[in-house]
């Protein structure tokens, strides 16, 4: 019979970490949603909490930094794959590269939170939001993002 011994202190700690990953992805998600950029309030927080959870599982299941590095490598590669799906090319231009980079950024937020590097996650969230919020005014054509 399976053992269902659950450490509720660990459950609450992981819930706390996933909540932080979720909250730190929201500013970027709101910006993308308000500018109607495809990925938004669902995608960015899900990327962040999924990255965080994959890293948390990897850290608890695998021993040693080499194994954790392989898990992180998989997350980084997966974020690149998801971001690639956000890029659209037409004869005139390429759209979605900033959204793809934002997806990668929220993946990094999740990994940072998993390692309890909240200061890195916070900086990634703030800078990501500021770039999306204010960089459009510096692009040709004005407010385009």
Describe the structure.
This protein has 145 residues and is an all-alpha fold. It has one domain (9-134). Helices cover 70% and strands 3% of the residues. It is built from 5 helices and 2 strands; from the N terminus they run αααββαα. A two-stranded antiparallel sheet has the order 1-2. Strand 1 (88-89) and strand 2 (94-95) form a beta hairpin. Helix 1 packs antiparallel against helix 2 (43-61), helix 1 packs antiparallel against helix 4 and helix 3 (65-84) runs antiparallel to helix 4.
User: How is the biggest beta sheet arranged?
Assistant: 2 strands, antiparallel
- Which stretches of 5+ consecutive residues score pLDDT under 50? none
Q: What shape does the CA trace take? A: elongated
The computed structural class is: mainly alpha
Query: What's the end-to-end separation, in Å?
Result: 55 Å
Q: Quaternary arrangement of the chains shown? A: single chain
Could you report the average pLDDT, rounded to the nearest whole number?
Answer: 89
What order do the SSEs take from the amino end to the carboxyl end, as H and E? HHHEEHH
Brief rundown of the structure:
The protein is mainly alpha-helical. The protein has helices at about 10-35, 45-60, 65-85, 95-115, 120-135; strands at about 90, 95. Strands 1-2 form a two-stranded antiparallel sheet.
């Amino acid at each position: 019979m399976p053992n269902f011994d659950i450490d509720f202190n660990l459950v609450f700690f992981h819930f706390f970490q996933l909540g932080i990953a979720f909250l730190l992805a929201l500013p970027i998600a709101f910006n993308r949603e308000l500018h109607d950029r495809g990925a938004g309030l669902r995608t960015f927080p899900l990327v962040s909490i999924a990255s965080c959870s994959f890293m948390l599982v990897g850290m608890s299941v695998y021993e040693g930094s080499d194994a954790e590095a392989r898990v992180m490598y998989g997350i980084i590669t997966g974020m690149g794959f998801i971001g690639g799906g956000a890029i659209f090319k037409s004869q005139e231009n390429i759209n979605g590269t900033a959204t793809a980079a934002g997806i990668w950024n929220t993946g990094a937020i999740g990994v940072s939170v998993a390692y309890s590097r909240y200061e890195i996650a916070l900086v990634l969230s703030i800078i990501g939001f500021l770039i999306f919020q204010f960089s459009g005014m510096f692009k040709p054509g004005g407010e385009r993002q």
